[in-house]
């Protein structure tokens, strides 16, 4: 074994001296996070983009100074925390952006310190075995056979379309509702596929009758993309009916469950995903309803043999004689070459909480969303779009026009008091609250509604 680290150069995060080098730095980071959060004092910094940029510019100073600053870690972490939109604050509820679990974040530190790269087995022996086992388990939880780890829903959807193209030919046509995620038509463009057929979804979900008519009239192979958890309203397409139509018409089925996949952990809500197992591919994303640090996406596949189309060869990474000798070939597990072991935090979370623990978190946020919807419904000054299916609630001040609704949202952002999203499910502008924080309490939601009410012009 080699000796200790050279004290004349900066210490490394791993190796014999790694933990001792990290301990004081972690204390610095944690103290800076605390100080920055206290300075912010709310869900996001006040003052808007110009004020935040000015603070960052002041803290950063010379980006690449001739002589280094030993206090840079404290200064910049403090600045980032003070200027963050913090998803752990109950009033930060705009997007599918969850507060990560502490245990998952701690696991992510280990992944960063060890820095395995999942492009060859000799760079990631244990990580490659862990990824294979955990990805397969998550795929089977969704009713499929295997899964690839991705950076999130966008990459998963792109891979799903790529597998469809390579399996059914370059004339395969994407068919989706107009509430489908923007990454799907973008992936069709990126892959050179024909223009997608986008079916109007006036009620926010894909209409089986319209889909049947479309598939009947459509020549050539089709890839139907359904959604389990739309971005705007958290709605779930009628998956069993869609699956039956795909079977009847010989169409391929992809289900984007980036948001809704977390319902699989819940005994109370799992039935909402009935039909998921009929898909050829399914997008899963655990940095939404899974409380993982970004990134934590997967693409589950029903037919692992289709993954052979992703195979790449680079003699320095997967030489034939190495693979024949039993070294796993990892290049066919992603379109990326260098990949960090994002599976570690997922594995630690699954093992630590179990299905019941994760299910309880899912139930908690879904319950809070229903409570918030009931509060809005009972308030004479607000309109509720609909009862939440997962944990997204759309609402708007009754007397406000679209310009006023937009102004309310921006005013709360500028003042640093609340982070709400926006959506147009019916052509009108609605405020969007996405409840992903399991620590959110009913009084937090009542306070959020009061903030909106107080910011709405009379």
TrEMBL record:
InterPro entries: PyrdxlP-dep_de-COase, PyrdxlP-dep_Trfase, PyrdxlP-dep_Trfase_major, PyrdxlP-dep_Trfase_small. One of its GO terms (molecular function) is transaminase activity. Pfam families: Pyridoxal_deC. Residues 1-21 are annotated as: Disordered. Its cofactor is pyridoxal 5'-phosphate. Residues 1-11 have a biased composition (Polar residues). Keywords: Aminotransferase, Decarboxylase, Lyase, Pyridoxal phosphate, Transferase. Transmembrane segments: none annotated. It comes from the Bacteria. PANTHER family: CYSTEINE SULFINIC ACID DECARBOXYLASE (PTHR45677:SF8), GLUTAMATE DECARBOXYLASE-RELATED (PTHR45677). Belongs to the group II decarboxylase family. This is Aspartate aminotransferase family protein. It comes from Streptomyces musisoli.
């Amino acid at each position: 074994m080699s000796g200790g680290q050279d004290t004349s150069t900066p210490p490394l995060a791993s190796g014999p001296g790694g933990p001792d080098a990290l301990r004081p730095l972690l204390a610095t980071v944690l103290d800076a996070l605390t100080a920055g959060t206290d300075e912010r004092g709310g869900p996001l910094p006040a003052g808007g983009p110009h004020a935040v940029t000015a603070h960052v510019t002041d803290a950063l100073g010379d980006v690449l100074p001739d002589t280094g600053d030993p206090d840079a870690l404290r200064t910049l972490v403090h600045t980032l925390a003070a200027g963050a939109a913090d998803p752990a604050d109950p009033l930060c509820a705009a997007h599918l952006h969850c507060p990560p679990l502490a245990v998952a974040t701690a696991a992510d530190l280990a992944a960063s310190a060890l820095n395995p790269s999942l492009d060859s087995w000799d760079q990631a022996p244990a990580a490659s075995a862990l990824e294979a086992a955990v990805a397969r388990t998550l795929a089977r939880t969704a009713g499929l056979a295997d899964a690839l780890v991705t950076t999130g829903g966008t990459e998963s959807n792109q891979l799903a379309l790529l597998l469809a193209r390579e399996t059914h030919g370059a004339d395969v046509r994407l068919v989706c509702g107009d509430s489908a995620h923007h990454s799907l038509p973008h992936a069709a463009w990126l892959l050179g596929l024909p223009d997608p057929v986008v079916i109007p979804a006036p009620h926010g979900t894909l209409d089986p009758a319209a889909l049947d008519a479309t598939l009947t009239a459509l020549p050539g192979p089709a890839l139907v993309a359904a959604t389990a958890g739309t971005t705007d309203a958290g709605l779930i397409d009628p998956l069993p009916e869609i699956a039956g139509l795909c079977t009847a018409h010989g169409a391929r089925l992809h289900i984007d469950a980036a948001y809704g996949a977390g319902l699989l952990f819940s005994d109370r809500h799992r039935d909402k995903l009935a039909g998921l197992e009929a898909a050829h591919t399914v997008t899963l994303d655990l940095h939404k309803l899974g409380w993982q640090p970004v990134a934590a996406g997967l693409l589950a596949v029903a037919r692992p043999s289709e993954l052979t189309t992703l195979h790449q060869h680079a003699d320095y990474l997967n030489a034939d004689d190495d693979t024949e000798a039993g070294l796993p070939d990892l290049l066919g597990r992603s379109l990326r070459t260098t990949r960090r072991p994002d599976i570690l935090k997922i594995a630690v979370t699954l093992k630590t909480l179990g299905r019941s623990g994760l299910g309880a978190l899912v139930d908690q946020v879904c319950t809070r969303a229903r409570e918030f919807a009931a509060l809005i419904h009972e308030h004479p000054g607000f309109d509720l779009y609909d009862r939440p299916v997962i944990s997204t609630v759309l609402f708007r001040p009754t007397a406000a026009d679209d310009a006023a609704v937009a102004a309310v949202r921006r005013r709360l952002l500028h003042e640093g008091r609340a982070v709400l999203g926006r959506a147009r499910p019916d052509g009108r502008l609605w405020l969007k609250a996405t409840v992903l924080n399991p620590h959110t309490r009913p009084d937090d939601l009542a306070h959020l509604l009061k903030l909106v009410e107080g910011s709405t012009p009379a």
